[in-house]
Design a protein that fits this description.
Largest sheet: 7 strands, mixed
Bound molecules: zinc ion
CATH topology of the largest domain: Metallo-beta-lactamase, Chain A
Radius of gyration: 22 Å
Strand order of the largest sheet: 6-5-4-3-2-1-22
CATH superfamily of the largest domain: Ribonuclease Z/Hydroxyacylglutathione hydrolase-like
Distance between the termini: 8 Å
Shape: globular
Number of domains: 2
Number of strands: 22
Helix content: 25-40%
Oligomer: single chain
Structural class: alpha/beta
Length: 461
């Protein structure tokens, strides 16, 4: 008996959780948190769709919260088996899970204080102790290295690009009668993107689970370097502030690298870069430690000319130092998280700077439905932060050319070496229209038949 159930990233981009069962053994590929609209976030609070104590291993693809953020919750509910991840993912996930636990706890306290919840006592989804307990379960697995989980499963990681340490998972299953393989794409990165490495060739497999974040879109052809060169030169000329909401892990390092490159090549004058996110600062250290997993050589990661911090960068660790940025005059760049504006210090910067017409807010990543980021991207002139109305007078600059996700064209290119059609292709990790478009492209270009699983839907393999 072999079976897969999609407990997340089905009809949506968040909450990735794929449960694979062989006889009475179970592995969970990714353990992500639902993010975005309220009806999705509320899913995090539903009774678990599986018994966490019955799972033999969790295999993580990469350190983004929509792939790992639910881990402390299942640990809180009794999960205690190994959690596999690549070495950079182990380090990044540790930072990210502790930060998420803090945010959960702060948010619960804030709601309690401001009486924003209908509950008498507002509890976090999980706390720091749960995150610490989850981190203790991590086991490292490098790219290409086979790991066995009982006699029923073995898996190895393939390079996905996308983010430091990001992987696709090739999982082999043996139920004593049949052997099958299933390949989980993870989040597939782009080719020739600043900082990340290109995704590697996908392996042949019986079943494919393919992401479709941009299944119906093609990224603009503009090159990130020239777009930022023009934008920053304007900011310098106007002596204004450029506020960039950025994921603490990945996007912050990508943008810092890009701006440092532009300064080094004298395409822009030196401009102060303020990184206002303790998590981003920790992530930058991890990027420096794992230089062979990305495109910056070790020699460009040290001292005042480092491409990831260096002389133009100021790191703001404390809240006090973050608040000082409220008075900051341009020209300057503030990088703060969270990337989709769902929480974190960026909210205070937005409260402070959105009503200011001289500020430019650059949206440089995927903004999920229902997030504040999506509202700004769609041109809202009034938004609500912690239930307070905030007028949007700042210029909103939208650039999707730095996305960490392959578009449909790149996904097809990536799948090209797969010579024959897997028995089933599951299209996941996309909003409905994106997954439908991806299915159509695969049908038109490859004649592949696809399935778009519904939430909690199971399939026999
Ligand atoms: Zn991701």
């Amino acid at each position: 008996m072999m079976k897969i159930t999609f407990h997340g990233a089905a009809g949506t981009v968040t909450g990735s959780k794929y449960l694979v069962e062989v006889n009475d053994k179970k592995v969970l590929v990714d353990c992500g948190m639902f993010q975005g609209p309220k009806e999705l976030r509320e899913r995090n609070w539903l009774p678990l769709p599986f018994d966490p104590t019955s799972i033999n291993a969790v295999i993580l693809t990469h350190a983004h919260i929509d792939h790992i953020g639910f881990l402390p919750k299942i640990v809180r509910e009794g999960y205690s088996s190994p959690v596999y991840a690549t070495p950079p993912t182990v380090d990044l996930a540790a930072v990210s899970l502790l930060d998420t636990a803090m945010l959960q706890m702060e948010d619960a306290q804030y709601r309690q204080k401001k009486k924003l919840s209908r509950h008498e006592v507002v509890l976090p989804l999980f706390d720091e102790d749960d995150a610490e307990a989850a981190i203790k379960l991590f086991r490292k697995a490098n790219f290409g290295e086979w790991k066995s989980i009982g006699t029923e499963f073995r898996f190895r990681y393939h390079i996905a690009g996308h983010l430091l340490g990001a992987a696709g998972v090739e999982l082999e299953m043996d139920d004593g009668v049949n052997r099958r393989s299933i390949f989980f794409s993870g989040d597939v990165g782009r080719y020739a993107n600043p900082l990340t490495i290109d995704p590697s060739k996908p392996p042949m497999c019986d079943y494919l689970v393919c992401e479709s974040t941009y299944g119906g879109k093609v990224h603009p052809a503009e090159d990130a370097f020239s777009v930022f060169e023009e934008l920053i030169n304007r900011v310098v000329k106007e002596r204004s502030v450029l506020l960039i909401p950025a994921f603490a892990i990945g996007r912050t390092q990508q943008i810092t690298f890009l701006v440092n490159q532009l300064i080094a090549k004298k395409f822009i004058p030196p401009i102060p870069i303020h990184i206002d996110s303790p998590m981003a600062i920790a992530a930058t250290d991890i990027y420096s430690k794992f230089s062979s997993y990305h495109s910056i050589g070790q020699n460009k990661l040290q001292g005042e000319n480092s491409m990831l911090d260096g002389q133009h960068v100021t790191l703001h660790r404390t809240r006090k130092s973050s608040k000082v940025l409220n008075e900051l005059k341009g020209p300057a760049i503030i990088l703060s998280s969270s990337g989709m504006l769902t929480g974190g210090r960026i909210l205070h910067h937005l409260l402070n700077r959105l009503p200011d017409p001289t500020t430019t807010v650059a949206l440089v990543g995927f903004m999920a439905e229902g997030t504040l980021g999506r509202k700004l991207m769609e041109g809202a002139d009034l938004i609500y932060i912690h239930k307070s109305p905030v007028e949007v007078k700042a210029r909103i600059f939208n650039f999707q050319g730095m996305s960490g996700h392959a578009d449909w064209f790149e996904l097809l290119h990536w799948l090209e070496p797969m010579e024959y059609q897997p028995r089933k292709v599951f299209i996941t990790h996309g909003e409905k229209e994106q997954s439908e478009a991806m299915a159509l492209h695969l049908h038109e270009e490859r004649k592949w038949e696809t399935v778009q699983p519904k939430m909690d839907e199971s399939f026999t393999l």
